Amino acid sequence: MEKIYLAGGCLWGVQEFIKYVPGVVDTKAGRANGKSATTQGDYDGYAECVEVTFNPAEVSLETLIHHLFEIIDPYSVNKQGNDVGEKYRTGIYSEQPNHIAQAKQIIAARNDADRIALEILPLTNFVLSDDIHQHHLSLHPENHHLCHIPWDLLHKYKVK
């Protein structure tokens, strides 16, 4: 199993979407690359993200990145839907240097690479979000109006 950390605006929608992708084994909502080890306190530079544990024999890193592009505006800086601010920036983070190198190559190969506002960095810190944020849209679908991703798209890969 391998892990990649994907940021695409509000973590509720990213988690609800990516957890159904075949080959994804587990997801955890959290914060990437902030300075703190807690969710308490002032904003510390983190990006809302989802830790994605995946089986590389079933789904490639490249496929996961393509799936991320299904649910984000890759040209938007610090904004996805109605969520505005640095913590809503898009990004790909990993503790594995080969993931970072591969992500950069995948983005560079796109014909719109010069316009993409996606941060690709080593993961320096991951803080698990509070329980209320874990699988939030599965547990509280009534809060979907707070998510910019259409419901049908969120469940595109959910086995019916």
UniProtKB/TrEMBL annotation:
It is an enzyme of class 1 (oxidoreductase). One of its GO terms (molecular function) is peptide-methionine (S)-S-oxide reductase activity. This is Peptide methionine sulfoxide reductase MsrA. Residues 3-143 form the Peptide methionine sulphoxide reductase MsrA domain. One of its GO terms (biological process) is cellular response to oxidative stress. Its EC number is 1.8.4.11. It catalyses: L-methionyl-[protein] + [thioredoxin]-disulfide + H2O = L-methionyl-(S)-S-oxide-[protein] + [thioredoxin]-dithiol; [thioredoxin]-disulfide + L-methionine + H2O = L-methionine (S)-S-oxide + [thioredoxin]-dithiol. Belongs to the MsrA Met sulfoxide reductase family. The active site is at C10. Keywords: Oxidoreductase. InterPro entries: Met_Sox_Rdtase_MsrA_dom, Met_Sox_Rdtase_MsrA_sf, MsrA_MetSO_reductase. SUPFAM superfamilies: Peptide methionine sulfoxide reductase. The keyword Oxidoreductase applies. One of its GO terms (cellular component) is cytoplasm. Has an important function as a repair enzyme for proteins that have been inactivated by oxidation. Catalyzes the reversible oxidation-reduction of methionine sulfoxide in proteins to methionine.
